[in-house]
Amino acid sequence: MILDLLMQSRTEGFVVSRKLAALPELKGTPVVLITGVRKAFHLPFALEPDPKWLPVTKVLEKPLQDSRLLRAVADVIGDA
């Protein structure tokens, strides 16, 4: 699954990632998060997957090249 972080609100992607992780039928589904939040809010740190705070498989920062996204998807599918 590919999920964006910033949707209608600044926190919606975090909320969605937690809701997805809590669904038994989606347990083990790899989630690649793509985000521009670091640049948009001048964060001095990168986001990383975290089981409670950000339960995703991989985080990619925008802008990103198609080839990088495709490699990330291939990587997480191989882990599934």
Describe this structure in words.
This protein is of the alpha/beta class and 80 residues long. It is 36% helix and 14% strand. The chain has three helices and three strands; from the N terminus they run βαβαβα. Strands 1-2-3 form a three-stranded parallel beta sheet, covered by helices on one side. The longest helix has 14 residues, at 66-79. The protein starts with a strand and ends with a helix.
Topology:
Layout: E1 2-4, H1 12-22, E2 32-35, H2 37-40, E3 58-61, H3 66-79
Parallel strand pairs: 1-2, 2-3
Gyration radius, rounded: 12 Å
Distance between the termini: 11 Å
What is the count of β-strands?
3
Shape category: globular
User: Secondary-structure element sequence?
Assistant: EHEHEH
Strand order of the largest sheet: 1-2-3
Report low-confidence residues grouped into runs of 5 or more: none
Average pLDDT works out at: 89
What share of the residues does DSSP label as strand, in percent? 5-15%
Number of helices: 3
Given helix and strand content, the structural type is alpha/beta
Helix content: 25-40%
The biggest beta sheet is recorded as: 3 strands, parallel
Short description:
This protein has 80 residues and is of the alpha/beta class.
